[in-house]
Amino acid sequence: GYCSDCKCDPDGSESLTCDKFTGQCRCKPNRGGLRCDQCPPGTYGDPNACQPCQCSNDGAVSSECDPQTGQCTCKPGVTG
């Protein structure tokens, strides 16, 4: 195999090293994503000011949304 830079976010990561198999960085609390440069699951927006997802329990696949846009994944036949 080959080695590549982890590119862990220095503000959101516990360290600049990552898992050698998955590339997952060790995120600080309230950070998520592979490089710890996004909001954690269940929240979205600016990683320094995450907002809770507002997915409908009835229409959404889960309570998690896109960590950048807040878009929820809808169940088949549901939009919004």
Helix/strand layout:
Elements: E1 13-18, E2 25-27, E3 43-44, E4 51-52, E5 60-65, E6 72-74
Antiparallel strand pairs: 1-2, 3-4, 5-6
Task: Describe the protein in words.
The chain is 0% helix and 28% strand. The chain has strands spanning 13-18, 25-27, 43-44, 51-52, 60-65, 72-74. The chain is built from no helices and six strands. The chain folds into two domains: 1-37, Ribbon (Laminin); 42-72, no CATH class. It is mainly beta and 80 residues long. A hairpin with a 6-residue loop joins strand 5 and strand 6. The termini are far apart. This is Laminin EGF-like domain-containing protein. Disulfide bonds join 6-18, 8-25, 27-36, 53-65, 55-72.
What percentage of residues falls in helices of 4 or more residues? under 10%
Q: What's the main sheet like?
A: 2 strands, antiparallel
Shape: elongated
Report the portion of residues in β strands: 25-35%
Class based on secondary structure composition and strand pairing:
mainly beta
What is the tally of helical segments?
0
CATH architecture of the largest domain: Ribbon
Q: Calculate the terminal CA-CA distance, rounded to whole Å.
A: 43 Å
SSE string, helix = H, strand = E?
EEEEEE
Mean pLDDT: 94
Disulfide bonds: 6-18, 8-25, 27-36, 53-65, 55-72
Protein name: Laminin EGF-like domain-containing protein
Organism: Rotaria magnacalcarata
Pfam family, one: EGF_laminin
Short descriptors:
80 residues; elongated; two-stranded antiparallel ribbon; mainly beta; Laminin; glycoprotein
Concise summary:
This protein has no helices and 6 strands.
